Amino acid sequence: MSSSPQSTRAFGELWSVTRFDGAELSRYAETLIFADTRRGLMTLGLVSMVMLAGAALAYALLGFDNVYVYTCSILAVLSLHMTASARAVNETRVVYLLGTTLLVVNGLAFVLLAHHSGALDAALFAAVILLFLVMPLVPWGLREALLIVLLVYLMFTLSTLSVDGRFDAETLWMLQLAMIAGGGTTLTVIARNILIRRDDIKARFELEKARDRMARLSLKDPLTGAWNRRFLDQNFTQIRADYSAAGQALQFALIDIDDFKVINDTGGHDYGDLVLVRLAANYLALFRGGEHLVRLGGDEFLLLLPKRDDGDLIAAGATALRTDPQLFSGSAGSQVGVSIGLLEVPPGVALSLDDIYRRADQALYRAKAGKGQQQRAFISRAVVEAGA
Q: What is the pLDDT of residues 191-209, one digit of tens each?
């Protein structure tokens, strides 16, 4: 009888704590799990170090063979080393490997102590139980946890059975029960933690996405979909730095719709809104990456883009608006023109946003003053000289 899709999916969710349905969610989970796994391994290392250092001290005070003291001391140093190593790695798989190594080496050391003493004493049983109990400190997937439990179980079982007659049967059965109970409990706790962690990751992911959407909406003009002035104030410095890093000049273009009041009065405010929407849509459709359209207010827009040699996007957007069929159908075939004040700022020129805006506004004023009757898109260009 085949397993149901629900049970298969549930097992898959337990098998890997970072594998989700969507690639974006999986990447988000990987980032969170890596941080949690590194912290978990550091905690595991510190807890192991304290317990092993305490065991070494107890063995020394109780007069045990020095091999117990040396073994626990070395394991304590190894635990401290794993804690330090966890801070230096950058992959979840490496952190899992470090944690697995720490647990398996500790288990191997306890087995060797048992062979050295020829007895499975209470201290060894306690060590086996603690080995399983500390495992949930690291957010393992079920795959990694099951591997560790099997490794520890097989290591203890095969090593104690490999020397016939060294350990009595009753003690071996007690060890088996202790390992099965400890391993089963550990895997149950880890599986439960995985389900809780997955639900938490999904909730945090959706919450952050909703918060990002709200943040983006607060930076968007609701009518046109262009950015708003708040976006410009918050991001202008970074945008300009990105252009400079690429060795590209900043093109700062102020766009103003010609006779917009007349358009509103003759075509109505709905048509005026349509003109604003189509202006934004035509420019956004031409973007190739790195451009930003900002609605400053009313019918004034700002276009930020790097200086390229692959065509004049600024003029192309104005032409697209003038020939937009949606505007013809809404206004009996009349054309909509714009005036543009364009300022080019070379990389490395130190001008504030206010200074750049003021110079571009002067260019816009000249564009409006020089616009002829037949020229429906007039662009006045200015270039800031180096050192200006």
A: 888 888 888 989 999 998 8
Contacts of 129 (CB under 8 A, 6+ apart): 178, 182
- Give the SS3 label for residue 286: helix
Which has more confidence, 280 or 174?
A: 280
Q: Which helix (H) or strand (E) holds 151?
A: helix 142-162
The rounded radius of gyration (Å) of the Cα atoms in the chain is: 35
Query: pLDDT for 215-250, tens place per residue?
Result: 778 889 999 999 999 999 999 999 999 999 888 999
User: Which residues face 134 on adjacent strands?
Assistant: none
**Residues 104, 82: Cα–Cα separation, whole Å:** 13
Q: How far are the Cα atoms of 29, 90, 94, 202 from residue 35, in angstroms, in the given order?
A: 10, 9, 12, 16
Neighbours of 339 (CB within 10 A): 25
- Work out the angle between the directed axes of helices 122-133 and 169-218 (0-180°, nearest 10): 20
**Residues present in the chain in total:** 388
| pLDDT for position 144 | 86
Neighbour-count burial for 354-387, b at 16+ CB within 10 Å, e otherwise: eebbebbeebbebbeeebeeeebbbbbeeebeee
The three-class DSSP label of residue 257 is strand
Q: What is the pLDDT of residues 5-37, one digit of tens each?
A: 555 555 556 666 667 777 888 888 888 888 999
The angle formed by the CA atoms of residues 313, 315 and 317, to the nearest 5 degrees, is: 70
pLDDT at 198: 87
SS3 292: strand
CATH superfamily of 229-383: Reverse transcriptase/Diguanylate cyclase domain (3.30.70.270)
CB 65 within 8 A of CB 17: no
Tell me the domain boundaries of the chain: 5-212, 229-383
